[in-house]
Write a structure and sequence with these properties.
16 strands; FAS1 domain; alpha+beta; four-stranded mixed β-sheet
C-alpha cells in the first residue's frame, strides 16, 4: 500500500506518553506496526503531560544523561540570567533550540553550523575596533566557541525573542505567515561583538519584537517555518502550559518576509 511520507516520518517522535527526540524524527503523528507488512495510520497523542520548563530540564542535563538535546540551549539561558520560571507561564508558544541549532560540529570539533556559526564573533584590533576585510569592507569574523563570547544582554534578548505570547500550533497556522508577539521589547538593538549586531540594518533584532510562523504547504512533511527560513526539527508538543516547537538550525531574530 502507498503511504504518505509525512505519516511515516512522524512515527519517530512520540509513542503514547514516551517522548524521545531522535535524529530526523518529525512531528507527532505516526503508524502502528501489525504482524505483517501492513501499517494502519494512527494519530499519536501530542500531549507530553508536563510543563515546558520540565520538558526543558528533563532534556538538558536531567535524569537521562544520554538525552541532552537541549543542553546548549539551557546553558545559554543560564548565561543570559533568564529565570526558568518563564517556561512555567501559561498561554505561550516556546521555540526550543536543539543542540545543533546552537553549535554543529564537524569531525574535528570545529563549529560549522548553528547560531555560533551564523552569527560569528567580530575580530577587533587593540583599540577595540572591528578588523575590516580590505576588499569587502566587512568585519572579519570567527565562529563563537562558547556563549560567553557574546554580550550577556544580547543572548538574553535572543532567548526572549523565542518565547511567543499566545498558543500557536498546527491547527492555528496555515501557509501564510502568522505574526507572533514575543517577549522581546520593541526597539531592542543587538550589540556589535558579533555579526548579529550588523544584520537587519544594524539593528539585529526585529524592531517590533515579532516573529512569524507558517506551515510550508509545498512540502510532504508540512514543517512549521520560523521567520520564513527555518523548518522545524520536531513540532507540536502540547505541554501543560503551552506549545513547543523545536528547531535544529540557527534562527533569525527578525522577520525575513
Amino acid at each position: 500500500m502507498t503511504l504518505n511520507i509525512r505519516t511515516i516520518v512522524r512515527t519517530c517522535l512520540l509513542a503514547l506518553t514516551v517522548v524521545v527526540l531522535l535524529p530526523g524524527c518529525k512531528k507527532l503523528f505516526g503508524l502502528s506496526r501489525q504482524e505483517d507488512y501492513n501499517y494502519v495510520p494512527q494519530t499519536l497523542d501530542p500531549h507530553i503531560n508536563i510543563s515546558v520548563r520540565q520538558f526543558l530540564e528533563n532534556r538538558s542535563y536531567g535524569a537521562t544523561p544520554q538525552d541532552t538535546v537541549f543542553k546548549w540551549m539551557r546553558l545559554g539561558l543560564e548565561y543570559a540570567g533568564i529565570d526558568l520560571a518563564e517556561y512555567d507561564k501559561p498561554d505561550r508558544t516556546f521555540i526550543f533550540l536543539h543542540n545543533e541549532a546552537v553549535r554543529r560540529l564537524d569531525a574535528t570539533g570545529k563549529v560549522v553550523g548553528g547560531i555560533w556559526f551564523s552569527y560569528p564573533i567580530v575580530q577587533k584590533d587593540v583599540n577595540g575596533n572591528p578588523v575590516l576585510d580590505p576588499v569587502t569592507g566587512v568585519p572579519k569574523t570567527t565562529p563563537a566557541t562558547k556563549w560567553t563570547d557574546y554580550d550577556q544582554t544580547t543572548v538574553k534578548n535572543y532567548f526572549l525573542y523565542l518565547i511567543g505570547q499566545g498558543k500557536y500550533n498546527f491547527e492555528d497556522l496555515n501557509n501564510l505567515n502568522k505574526d507572533v508577539q514575543s517577549l522581546l521589547p520593541a526597539g531592542t538593538v543587538a550589540t556589535k561583538e558579533s555579526m548579529l549586531g550588523y544584520v537587519n540594518a544594524g539593528k539585529g533584532f526585529d524592531q517590533e519584537g515579532k516573529f512569524t510562523l507558517k506551515i510550508r504547504s509545498n512540502s510532504d512533511l508540512g514543517p512549521i517555518v520560523h521567520n520564513g527560513t527555518a523548518d522545524d526539527r520536531s513540532a507540536g508538543y502540547i505541554a501543560t502550559n503551552g506549545i513547543v516547537h523545536v528547531y535544529g538550525v540557527a534562527l533569525s531574530p527578525y522577520r525575513t518576509e
